[in-house]
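Key result, reporting period 2: structure in, sequence out.
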């Protein structure tokens, strides 16, 4: 399949797009011809998660043979990598409300859904492209991507991975997970500042020709595991298709009945995947984009203006503390009717002024599919308590933001109550002990592990084994640098290769 840039006529094949991540004009790759209406219920009715993955992904990566793609899928969505055979179980909360649990992978966040498969796709793409250089994955993370990418790439031949995470925002468990990462090809560095600082700086290094030349001289090329890569996006479409099949199988909806989806959103990757699933034929009605106090997207869906000129807040849902939502550019491209010139102009405007607007006509089209809601930290904790007390179900803060957004949407549009709604649950609650203790008024412990013991004792939720095992592991990566030194950090890491 051909992929094209959102900003120009640049068109490449899928293995090139996988390997390079970002188009050379700074745009993002999108399918040149989208596989519209290629999925029906009959195709996925009784299929396993792995079979559904193949049904979906063959459209995005037709270069790979069926056997090769299935082998990658089976290795990624294996018993070793996921704690449940369902991979992404759908938990029914109420007659018209389900939670799609995307946190049963190795790092207890939905990032595992794509990052378990992505390294296989990347290595296959590298081979197909005849690329003999070693690949250095550079990734900025607001917490969950870093750990999931590290687990995905650890000790994968021909690859190295450098993760940058901000000192402000990540939870103590997320930090432990990264600081104690194992593997011989990994480096993890904390950056003073917030996620946007780290992400913006890294984007600049990524396209810096001088940097590229310096590492090329050592037989190394950069690639990214950030959610802009098509190899991150496409695997996320799969669980929305699987959720649809499961809803019909459970009798929650008829095969032609629309259901709504609520997604706790940061970089707009997860919700864009739901939009792709809808374009492929899944009967998704409304897509509700849930935000925390960093509500730039909520405002966009209300007004048609995306305005980053605002204060950045650190919240208890750190993976959503983002003002520059990187996959939003892909969405803008679709909003414009796949007009790359207009998208390019708008992205330039956003860069120059921190702000962009779509037309009134485009906004009304957007509002037919999308709606945005946000809630505060206080509201998030209240939702965690309410859902736990009413249904005995423990939400992590990100999923609680989605639940709270759903409640607000219902207040604004009570008619939505008759539609089945799926909430995307993006992290295991045990990644965020502090807000959970506060929400449920549980006595915190002296360490995050002790807090989690208390939470487990009160709620009966079992300690995920990977998190429990962390406690015994050694701290490996504890250094903190200023963002200006990120380039230097990368070069010193490259110097260690082969040593
Ligand atoms: C990454 C992440 C999000 C945001 O997902 P996007 O695809 O960036 O919108 C939400 N919740 C959790 C727990 C995450 O790790």
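The corresponding designed sequence is given below.
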């Amino acid at each position: 399949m051909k992929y094209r840039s959102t900003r120009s006529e640049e068109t490449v094949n899928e293995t090139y797009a996988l390997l390079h991540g970002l188009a050379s004009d700074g745009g993002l790759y999108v399918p040149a011809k989208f596989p519209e209406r290629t999925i029906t219920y009959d195709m996925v009715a009784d299929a396993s998660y792995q079979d559904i993955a193949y049904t979906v992904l063959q459209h995005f990566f037709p270069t790979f043979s069926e056997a090769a793609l299935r082998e990658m899928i089976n290795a990624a969505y294996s018993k070793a990598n996921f704690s449940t055979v369902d991979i992404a179980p759908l938990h029914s909360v109420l007659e018209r409300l389900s939670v799609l649990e995307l946190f049963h992978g190795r790092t207890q966040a939905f990032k595992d859904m794509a990052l378990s498969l992505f390294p296989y796709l990347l290595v296959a793409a590298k081979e197909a492209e005849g690329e003999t250089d070693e690949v250095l994955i550079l990734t900025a993370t607001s917490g969950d991507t870093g750990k999931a990418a590290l687990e995905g790439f650890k000790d994968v031949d021909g690859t190295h991975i450098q993760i940058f995470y901000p000192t402000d925002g990540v939870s103590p468990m997320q930090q432990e997970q990264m600081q104690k990462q194992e593997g011989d090809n990994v480096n993890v560095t904390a950056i003073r500042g917030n996620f946007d600082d780290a992400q913006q700086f890294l984007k600049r290094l990524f396209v810096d020709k001088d940097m590229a030349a310096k590492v090329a001289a050592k037989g190394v090329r950069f690639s990214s595991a950030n959610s802009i890569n098509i190899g991150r996006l496409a695997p996320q479409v799969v669980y929305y298709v699987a959720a649809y099949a499961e809803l019909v199988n459970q009798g929650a909806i008829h095969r032609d009945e629309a259901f709504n989806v609520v997604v706790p959103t940061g970089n707009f990757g997860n919700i864009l995947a739901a939009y792709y699933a809808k374009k492929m034929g899944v009967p998704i009605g409304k897509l509700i984009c849930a935000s925390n106090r960093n509500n730039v997207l909520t405002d966009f869906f209300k007004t048609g203006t995306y305005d980053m000129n605002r204060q950045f807040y650190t919240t208890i849902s750190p993976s959503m503390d983002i003002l520059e939502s990187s996959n939003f550019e892909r969405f803008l491209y679709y909003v414009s009717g796949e007009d790359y010139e207009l998208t390019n102009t708008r992205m330039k405007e956003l860069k120059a002024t921190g702000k962009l607007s779509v037309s009134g006509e485009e906004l009304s089209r957007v509002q037919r599919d999308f709606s945005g809601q946000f809630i505060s930290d206080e509201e998030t904790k209240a939702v965690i308590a309410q859902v736990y007390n009413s249904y005995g179900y423990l939400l992590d803060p990100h999923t609680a933001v989605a639940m709270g957004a759903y409640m607000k949407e219902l207040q604004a549009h009570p008619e939505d109550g008759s539609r089945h709604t799926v909430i995307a649950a993006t992290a295991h609650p045990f990644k965020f002990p502090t807000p959970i203790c506060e929400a449920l008024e549980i006595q915190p412990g002296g360490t995050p592990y002790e807090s989690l013991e208390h939470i487990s004792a009160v709620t009966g939720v079992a300690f995920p084994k990977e998190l429990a095992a962390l406690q015994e592991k050694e701290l490996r990566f504890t250094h903190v640098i200023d963002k200006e030194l990120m380039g230097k950090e990368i070069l010193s890491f490259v110097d260690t290769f082969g040593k």
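The radius of gyration is 21 Å. Residues 109-111, 144, 227, 264-270, 319-320, 398, 426-427 surround pyridoxal-5'-phosphate (CB under 6 Å). This case is discussed further under Risks and Mitigation.
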